[in-house]
Design a protein that fits this description.
The complex is a heterodimer. Helix content of chain A is 0%, strand content 54%. Chain A is mostly beta strands. In chain A, strand 7 and strand 8 form a beta hairpin. Chain B is mostly beta strands. Chain B contains no helices and 11 strands. In chain B, strands 2, 4, 5, 6, 9, 10 and 11 form a 7-stranded mixed beta sheet that branches. In chain B, strands 1-3-8-7 form a 4-stranded antiparallel beta sheet, with no helix packed on it. The N and C termini of chain B lie far apart (32 Å). The chains are: A mainly beta, B mainly beta. At the A-B interface, strand 4, strand 5, strand 9 and strand 10 of A face strand 5 and strand 10 of B.
Chain lengths: 112, 114
Amino acid sequence: GESVGLHLPTLSVQEGDNSIINCAYSNSASDYFIWYKQESGKGPQFIIDIRSNMDKRQGQRVTVLLNKTVKHLSLQIAATQPGDSAVYFCAENNNAGNMLTFGGGTRLMVKP
Amino acid sequence: ETGVTQSPTHLIKTRGQQVTLRCSSQSGHNTVSWYQQALGQGPQFIFQYYREEENGRGNFPPRFSGLQFPNYSSELNVNALELDDSALYLCASSNERGGADTQYFGPGTRLTVL
């Protein structure tokens, strides 16, 4: 079936370095993608989103890139900080608009 | 904080029992979606309510049911609990049918079925 997945289950980076978290999706009809951050014991927290008519979107220290040709999504975090340590999920909003399909998550660990 | 609240925070039930989980949506949001998150996995869509009507359902059996009230708060009911129902249950609120608007999540209810 259609799914959203991630390439790397765990990513360890040095504080201050840039982080890149990748995600592959398979539903070519999806038109909206979201990155969420989930800390232990908490619900997913919205980070940034992108619609299918865009290739890139920037926020504060975060950038999302969308490559529709290869159905690939990435989240870039600049100057990674210890507070960025969490599990990151990409999610896909189907074209019916009523559900999010999540990948399995990538754990980001930031070393001081 | 998203303004989405859920209760209770934690809950322990035994197999065969029934449970009701509650969610208050963010002010101005008329859509509530429920997700089940097993340990170490991403959330799985259960169903969505828009203006008190079910508006889409994931691959969950009928013993998972829900309600949305006129103030847009929502309940998730699970009957005949099974061990595999142990999970974090998340609700998310959004405006309109969630198609063009971001879903904001509450902190979740941790359900343990013994």
